[in-house]
TrEMBL record:
Source taxonomy: Eukaryota, Metazoa, Ecdysozoa, Arthropoda, Hexapoda
InterPro entries, per database record: Peptidase_M2
Protein name from the UniProt record: Angiotensin-converting enzyme
GO CC terms in record: membrane
PANTHER family: ANGIOTENSIN-CONVERTING ENZYME
Cofactors named for this entry: Zn(2+)
Amino acid sequence: MGATNTFLLLLLFKTCLSQNLYHLFKQINEETGNFSTIAANLAWESSINPGNPELPARSAVYQKNRLIWQHNTCDKLATLHNRQSLNSTQQRQYYLLCRGPEFTYGETRITSNLYEELQSIYSDAEICIPSDSNTSSNNLTAVEDAILNYLSNVKQFFGYKYGDSNLFAAKIAVNRNIQEKEMLCLKGEVDFEKMMAFSRNEEVLRWLWQVWREKIGPPMKEPYRKLVAIENRAARRNGYSDIGASWRDELEVPMLRQLCRHLYEEVKPLYRLLHGVMRFYLRRFYGNIVPERGAIPAHLLGNLWSQNWEPLVDLLLPQTIDLDESIEKLNWTVLHMVRRAEDFYQSMGLPAMTDKFWRESVFARENSDTRCHGTAADMFQDGDFRLLYCSGTSKEDFYVLHHELGHIQYYMSYEHQPPIFRQANTALHETIGDTIMYGVLTPQHLNRLGLINDSLLYTMNVEQTDTPMIQDNNVIYDNKECRSEKDKDFEKTETKDSKETINDVFEATNDKDYLVMKKLKADYLPFTKLNENIKDEKFDVPPPKIFEDKDISTDSVLLLKTALNKIPQIPFSLLIDEYRWKYFEGSLRRENRDFWAMARELQGIAPPTVRGEEYFDVGAKFHVPDNTPYIRYFLSSFLQHQLFEKLCKAAVFGRRSVDGDVPDTISLTRCDIYGSKAAGKILKDFMSRGHSQHWREILRATLGEDDISAAALNRYYRPLYELLEKFVRAHRVPIGW
């Protein structure tokens, strides 16, 4: 009887404890949801109207209340954790709620002011120069002319007595408050990015690249140092070595640094090929300013940060598929583009955007202070999901809209979860929209949208090539013999030859046209020392075609454009956080020069001018002053291919559980997932778990994989890899830097 009573008392105690813990975590989740709602509203208002004088006081009240509550709650949960009283779900909620840096109230107020200072430096950046007329920043040709005229005037007036006249012109524009009746003003990263993609004038590009970093970097250096010092103290208070260790913990990837380097090495063969071919064509266009071997000048890659080379596709292809032109001809509006993006998700069985989304989202700049960097917001209220993006109607805008709607689909999928689980591993969160975009860019869907016609839709595959040879600087080697085990995903596979090509559509420029264009280019770029001191006659003939006639197809052109857009982002995203991790650790000897040493190692790029320690060039990217970790985008570059391949299999076979590979007769670049409910079920399952499980468990349950791998990415780009190898072999293009 005594033993029975003891057992019953123990059972009663455990039952009561379990019920108490259930109610405790229910209350904690309710309070978490309330704080999340307040935080979301503050974040939204600070983006829409950052000058609102009420925001600092409201933010201070929120931070104080949240800190006191979280400190008390985590102390209570730590005691229960140490007593081993929590079940697995409660353990995970405790971990998610209480990880990360521990700030004091005083520290949160200081960091809030530093965040605002850094954001203002970046978001409010504006450069104005004298102009012959009030030039709109949207008239890119007029903007380029105005910049050239400004540079010419500076050079004429000051000569070279202050050294590099281009750099001096940048310093004048930054440091002098020029008062003229007629001005050209470039505001924010959007205006600079448009010009970096548009211009082919080396002097203009160099000035844009320099003046952005002159404006952003130096004033950011000291507040960023103060911010990191406080964040490091807060991170150490919770057991981390520095804030970088806290950031890495958020991803729940053991040995994250080693994994990232391994993934980089896996994709490096493809990146090196793309880099070598791009350097080859840039040298043909700009001359000796681009070295035959070594790093590419960073300002010539069509992007403010050298992370997206797609704007340079016209240097590689005589004619290309211009989706921007197609969008313009169709007179698409921003609203039309949002509806088309929504339609893709809906076609897979995912929900439509909510009424509050359409009522509260912002698709255009409401005032001059609005911070328009693309942002998807979960307001933690029923059906309240919003998008802030001052969108245009370009292909890049179309991508951003799909990307941000991917975040919102994620929010809607895990809305049913307890508030602590209403989040997800950030690498997974960044994966959804980009995965969908591979489906959007298939010829079938582009034709469905009216962006390409039937003649482009029905041109198919390219013919495979023999094993080529690659030149690595001064070394010629047989690529098959020297290929490492990591390159096995690029081994040759036979595909069916296509009798159809699009030579009629992509007609190569002949020699006469090329020489005329070259003369016009030289006349139009009077301040560029184009091809100076070049005596090799090969620069006076058209550059060779990147694809042979039999290899030109809609698929190869679209794949090249995608690769130019996506592949350079991989080393760039690794650079941004590898550098910051070292910054947080205090292991950098020369902060800015070390940044460029790492950029050369990972990206194979070099600055166009000497960059001393007075600069803070890493701050030229939004996510640095925004204090947002960037390695999530690196990991997402691989995860999105793993997910897309799984969705492709479901779309092809009509069911989610498929063993084996996609049939050889179906190219991944033509895998049309639009309308596939089977693929949509995988996506819904992937997202609906939120943060309730470790990311490995989610991958295992939904994709049948338990690690992040480069294999799917390499399979996707294998046809392009082989075409680039063929080109490199035929023209003995140097590879490496």
